[in-house]
Automatic annotation (TrEMBL):
Signal recorded as keyword: yes
Name recorded for this polypeptide: Subtilisin-like protease SBT5.3
Domain Inhibitor I9 as annotated: residue spans: 11-96
Entry-linked InterPro entries: PA_dom_sf, PA_domain, Peptidase_S8/S53_dom, Peptidase_S8/S53_dom_sf, Peptidase_S8_Ser-AS, Peptidase_S8_subtilisin-rel, Peptidases_S8_3, S8pro/Inhibitor_I9
GO MF annotations, alphabetized: serine-type endopeptidase activity
GO biological process, one term: proteolysis
Region Disordered: start-end pairs: 604-626
Organism, scientific name: Hibiscus syriacus (Rose of Sharon)
Gene3D superfamilies assigned: 2.60.40.2310, 3.50.30.30, Peptidase S8 propeptide/proteinase inhibitor I9 (3.30.70.80), Peptidase S8/S53 domain (3.40.50.200)
Assigned protein family: Belongs to the peptidase S8 family.
Domain PA: 416-479
Entry-linked CDD domains: PA_subtilisin_like, Peptidases_S8_3
Length: 776
């Protein structure tokens, strides 16, 4: 018998807004909230007892709501209740270094300058960093993550006693639990949403905050890992590993589990992690995960982030790895700090030499390469074959099944071992993961792999710990290699040894995978907000798995090389920890503004940043630009925001007043007239520019008491921008001044889709820059 679709049971989240019992609820208060959830659901399903069986989470501390297994009709009926903000499916999300801090100028060639934000903030001492992921207390970072506690990055050597403010704990329900110390002061796990989605029981391996895939340890150590000398990956990238706030305390909140249908982090668990972390006392929350953007009240990340910000916590999230497609950016609410990924000035380089007697270099400059099985000698390097026979420097013959597309993608079962054995295999990027291609090449008997970019990936080259000797080349070079193969009867090649190079130019450039704007939910909010290093980042790793995260990979490494917006996000989290230590009176919005308005849009050749195809990048790629921590500690002016400002923004978007009151947990009245353009955001995005638009903004002086700022604008062709007043004079620190930006367009420019400009306030020392995006 077929079950009606409406009767199929699924896990939902019933969101009721904010808690109203205060910041230090008693057990009686918490029990009362839980009982109210049973009563509310019981009124729809027959009784409180039946509701108890359906509810798998009750959010009782900061977020008010519950997770429950419901059918479609029950969910629809509950959504109509006047005390319910929203009801939405328990959706799954995806998980989105030794050199990067030097590139960001916190240190210079291993020496920390006196003007470094590290020294000025005492390395973020006693900041507690938490991670929501796979694993004097002024500032607490919370990263939704899991952790490998044995890593030296989480050593508590030199750390004093845990500050009294900390209210968190370590879950040790099994022998595989996490043992905390004075550095790693919290480790908790949340799996009921995952369990509800699966519809079955979980064994003891799911009862730990321990990191089994490496992602959580990598991100947590990037944000707040301790100093570890001699960190490297298979001997490459050697240096001292450290997080952005190396003096911080760290805490892990595990909300991600083995993927199910491509999903691994479920909203119900994410919201439970937020609720716990807020109560534990965190001040900065770093979240390297996300999914498709959705309405703010139907998104567990957006809801959790709002409640965190409402409690004074900075929330940093990854933009996503779905680039370079336009409109692919996730985590798009204005209270979220959304970070894209860009390169740094370090590369792991090698050459591919083509031909027999004549040597043909496929590029004019070195390219990325990462080999873990290459044998070195004092005279001649060798390549290691799977049969344990060594191939000399004499060229290894190519093979490339380019006539069938699935074969050139090197997908499972597509490679003929008779043709691939003993040869270097050329694989085109796409279809399956980069390292999966190397595995397929190895299984087919190849002795090496050349991974060639597809056109969207352009020049983006990523270093990976492959199963076999391998190198990664760009799209143009890949075409040249294929042309050489097609034109040669016996094509041959040699992959040179890998070397680490620094001070590479140009850098930074945007990563091809970094998700792009515009913001598809609310185009008037520019996303991403900024970018940070996220390509080839070295950081701590879990030693319960290999660097390829494949069961057949038996290698174990304390540090690994990873790329993604997951890696760029904790860079900014670490910077925020430093800023909170230096400026404990600054709001989350002020810190966000300081980082955004001091970011750079030019590379180390002083030319505009490029994307992976060597085209000029735009604010849809990098937001305000790549972060500059030393500039952010003294921005001059900031664009500040309060909870009320965000609520007014929601009113302007059409949310009803009753819902917003529940969302905030406070009495609130929407203004009689409001516009989404009224939000005092550090960037300006004008949607559907037609005629004249006026944007009102307010800046606060956080620099010298007596200062004068003059406005400068850069306008695209066909657009006129004026600022009134164009001069702002401040008499004291903390003083605020309001101004208007008037934007006028000609009818001639409406044939183009987007255009970009900027507003700059300068007093001669401070340059407060805001990107302006025009959408027609």
């Amino acid at each position: 018998m077929q079950i009606p679709t409406s009767a199929i049971k699924q896990s939902y989240i019933v969101y009721l807004g904010a808690q109203t019992h205060g910041i230090n609820p008693t057990s009686v208060d918490l029990d009362a909230v839980t009982n109210s959830h049973y009563e509310l659901l019981g009124s729809f399903v027959g009784s409180s007892e039946m509701a108890r069986e359906k509810i798998f989470y009750s959010y009782t501390r900061n977020i008010n709501g519950f997770g429950a297994v419901l059918d479609e009709k029950e969910a629809a009926d509950i959504a109509k209740h006047p005390k319910v903000v929203s009801v939405f499916l328990n959706r799954g999300r995806k998980l989105h270094t030794t050199r990067s801090w030097d590139f960001l100028r916190l240190e210079r060639d291993g020496v920390i300058p006196t003007d470094s934000l590290w020294k000025r903030s005492s390395f973020g001492a006693d900041v507690v960093i938490g991670n929501l992921d796979t694993g004097k207390l002024y500032h607490t970072f919370m990263l939704l993550t899991c952790v490998w506690p044995e890593s030296k990055s989480f050593s508590d050597e030199g750390m004093e006693q845990i500050p009294l403010k900390w209210r968190g704990s370590c879950h040790r329900d099994t022998d595989d639990g996490v043992v905390c110390n004075r550095k790693l002061i919290g480790a908790r796990y949340f799996n009921k949403g995952y369990k509800a989605y699966l519809g079955g029981k979980l064994n003891d391996t799911f009862k730990t905050a321990r990191d089994t895939v490496g992602h959580g340890s990598h991100t947590l150590s990037t944000a707040g890992g301790n100093f570890v000398a001699g960190a490297n990956v298979f001997g490459y990238g050697n240096g001292t590993a450290k997080g952005g706030s190396p003096g911080a305390r760290v805490a892990a909140y595990k909300v991600c589990w083995p993927p199910v249908n491509g999903q691994e982090c479920f909203d119900a668990d994410i919201m439970a992690g937020f609720d716990a972390a807020i109560s534990d006392g965190v001040d900065v929350l770093s979240v390297s995960l996300g999914g498709d953007p959705s309405e703010f009240f139907e998104d567990g990340l957006s809801i959790g982030a709002f409640h965190a910000v409402m409690n004074g916590i900075s929330v940093v999230l990854s933009a996503g790895n779905s680039g370079p497609s336009p409109g692919s950016v996730s985590n798009i609410a204005p209270w979220m700090f959304t970070i894209g990924a860009s390169t740094l000035d370090r590369e792991f380089v090698s050459y591919v030499e083509l031909g027999n007697s004549k040597q043909i270099k496929v590029r004019k400059r070195p390219m990325h390469q990462w080999k873990t099985r290459m044998i070195r000698s004092h005279s001649t390097p060798y390549l290691y074959s799977t049969s344990s026979n060594f191939c000399s420097r004499n060229h290894i013959r190519f093979t490339c099944m380019h006539h069938v597309y699935c074969r050139i993608l090197c997908q499972p079962g597509s490679i003929d071992p008779r043709k691939a054995k003993g040869k270097i295999l050329v694989c085109l990027r796409g279809g399956i993961g980069r390292m999966d291609k190397g595995k397929q090449a190895l299984l087919a008997g190849a002795v090496g792999m050349i991974l060639a970019n597809d056109e969207p990936s352009g020049n983006q080259l990523i270093a990976d710990a492959h199963f076999l000797p391998a190198t990664h080349i760009n799209y143009t070079d890949g075409r040249n290699v294929l042309e050489y193969i097609n034109s040669s009867k016996n094509p041959t090649a040699y992959i040179t040894p890998v070397e680490t190079e620094t001070s590479i130019k140009p850098a930074p450039s945007m990563a091809s995978f970094s998700s792009r704007g515009p913001n598809m939910i609310e185009p008037s909010i520019l996303k991403p907000d900024a970018t940070a290093p996220g390509v080839n980042i070295i950081a701590a790793f879990s030693e319960s798995t290999g660097p390829i995260e494949d069961e057949s990979d038996k290698r174990r490494v304390p540090f690994a090389l990873q790329s993604g917006t997951s890696m760029s996000c904790p860079h900014v989290s670490g910077i925020i920890g430093l800023l909170k230590s230096l400026h404990p009176d600054w709001s989350a919005a002020a810190i966000k503004s300081a980082i955004m308005t001091t970011a750079r849009t030019r590379d180390n050749t002083k030319k505009p940043m490029l994307d992976s195809n060597n085209k000029k990048a735009t604010p849809f790629d990098y937001g305000s630009g790549q972060v500059r921590p030393n500039r952010a500690m003294d921005p001059g002016l900031v664009y500040d925001l309060t909870t009320e400002d965000y609520l007014n923004f929601l009113c302007a978007r059409g949310y009803n007043q009753t819902t917003i009151r529940l969302f905030s947990g406070k009495p609130f009245v929407c203004p009689k007239s409001s516009s989404v353009m009224d939000l005092n955001y550090p960037s300006i995005a004008v949607h559907e520019l037609n005629g004249t638009v006026t944007v009102s903004s307010t800046v606060k002086n956080v620099g010298p008491a007596r200062s004068t700022y003059k406005a400068r604008v850069r306008s695209p062709a066909g657009v006129m921008i004026s600022v009134n007043p164009s001069i702002l004079e401040f008499e004291k620190n903390g003083e605020e001044k309001r101004f208007e930006v008037k934007i006028e367009s000609n009818s001639d420019v409406q044939s183009q889709e987007y255009a970009f400009g900027e507003l700059l306030w300068s007093d001669g020392k401070h340059n407060v820059r805001s990107p302006i995006v025009f959408m027609y």
